[in-house]
Specification:
Blueprint (H helix, E strand, L loop, with lengths): L4 E4 L3 H12 L5 E6 L1 H4 L5 E6 L2 E7 L10 E5 L3 H13 L3 E2 L4 E2 L8 E6 L5 E6 L4
Organism: Sphingomonas rustica
Pfam family, one: Glyoxalase
Protein name: VOC family protein
Length: 130
């Protein structure tokens, strides 16, 4: 249903360092950079994804940071969820739910939650029975 999603961050360099590290275990990296020259308003936008398709965007345009936003990213396995969580914590993310089964969603819902540098709740989830 969704093609892509994005939100405003307060410090593009700090957020890039966090997301570069946190998303690498999920196979996600920057697929496109929209520079200040391209936007015409001095802002920078970074599109993360794979295979040349940016699905998740962060940018430093906007008067207000998107605090409180929640995004869940697909992981191919529980091991990827674990690796995402470890990388995100090592990159300065705050714990918001260690990797584990969330049976109240369904028996194979395995997720981990971290808070990014701007207070966004970022989750990696696998629905596979592993």
């Amino acid at each position: 249903m969704l093609d892509h999603v994005g939100y405003t961050v307060s410090d593009i360099a700090a957020s890039q360092a966090f997301y570069d590290a946190a998303l690498a275990p999920l196979g996600l990296s920057i697929q496109m950079t929209v520079t200040p020259e391209m936007t015409g308003d001095g802002s920078t936008h970074l599109g993360y994804g794979q295979g040349g398709k940016p699905d998740f965007w962060i940018g430093d345009a906007g008067a207000q940071v998107s605090k409180g936003t929640h995004i869940a990213l697909t992981a191919a396995s529980r091991a990827e969820v674990d690796a995402f969580y470890a990388a995100a914590i090592a990159a300065g993310g705050r714990d918001n739910g260690a990797p584990g089964i969330r049976a109240h969603y369904h028996p194979n819902y395995y997720g981990a939650f971290v808070i990014d540098p701007d207070g966004m709740n970022v989750e990696a989830v696998s629905h596979r029975p592993e």
